[in-house]
């Protein structure tokens, strides 16, 4: 059993209430650790620590902040195996994926540290000879990071690394299901030389209470959130009371278009990589697959054949490619979506079943779902209307490019979209017409640390990654100097 308290002002401490909660392995249902269960008073302590640490951290030369972040990056890589195993234990994803995420998470730290040295101001020509105009960028202040359970490391570093690079101090609230990875990251950041109070962590089972406390506190000037659109809208409303800067990476319902000239081997491989990574529990995974009618049968058969080969099981076992869903509620939703589709006429080409016992998993407490491919899918089915967040690939057909784009854009979400074609002109046309913040053209996994990540419409506000992510933590100050 792993035990952690709250990390506030450089020290591990109990929650004010003294309460704790257990963390469970989703592959078995067994407890693996205990964390402090923080509340509003703990948030106040963490925010005060960040508030007090802010002036000195903001005044530190960017090069020195970059050196500290570089050390944090190196510490993460030194402990890549350990962090990967810890993540698999609490989140369930296959160990290979977990270690890949640690690399991705560390890369955000490295990139942001390098970007700290490139936060430039500007001189603007004045209209008169007796004035000088300067534009100065400075850190916004204390930033709060509220992160999800599906990527326990990278969603933290994608927020706090650019914040630290910009000169902000932070308070992190990780998901209740996956706090252990976050706690270990705090230890590594401390070992790397991040000063007391610059990074703080409040674990809690009471997401609403902790979130409200962060949003109501005037000392918190920026909030970054990754999670559902429903919760994001509530945070956006509450942030308005203190006019905080806010970044929201919300729900996605990504379309994947396969045109008649696509390489089917490559296209199906990319659908597998996009759809079934992390058991379909990603905001950018392919959720609606639209295939040209002339190749639909061949595509469906090939995709189903490859989906059948995916090994389901405990992520710590050799060769496992699909781990468990995070909990019973997640499995319930996937099962309901499949049953709804079948009841309305969809055909299960492969998979379709919920399972509790897989391989060495003991059963009953775990929640697995077979990699599933559905065809004969229609627009009134929940798998097309809602984000499933599970390993289910629903296939529909289209006749024309215009119809495909219309179907893809027919969603209130606009996070990621994908399409496969060999036609260069079509690549440009379709990429420009898709109403999504991220478009993968012949690329099912486009995420990278140096590019902007974020969505259109109800998929969020702001961007994370590259220089764009750092800019979210900066204020722009205009200075006019009179020479009279």
TrEMBL record:
Q: So what EC number does this one have?
A: 1.2.1.-
Return the NCBIfam families for the record.
SSADH (TIGR01780)
UniProt record similarity statement: Belongs to the aldehyde dehydrogenase family.
Q: Which GO terms describe its molecular function?
A: oxidoreductase activity
Q: What InterPro entries does the record tag this protein with? A: Ald_DH/histidinol_DH, Ald_DH_C, Ald_DH_CS_CYS, Ald_DH_N, Aldehyde_DH_dom, Aldehyde_DH_Superfamily, Succ_semiAld_DH
Keyword Oxidoreductase: yes or no?
A: yes
Q: What is this protein called?
A: NAD-dependent succinate-semialdehyde dehydrogenase
- List the keywords (alphabetical): Oxidoreductase
Main EC class the enzyme belongs to: oxidoreductase
Membrane-spanning residues where? none
Q: Which CDD domains match?
A: ALDH_F5_SSADH_GabD
Query: Which Gene3D superfamilies did the record assign?
Result: Aldehyde Dehydrogenase, Chain A, domain 1, Aldehyde Dehydrogenase, Chain A, domain 2
**Domain Aldehyde dehydrogenase: from-to ranges:** 12-479
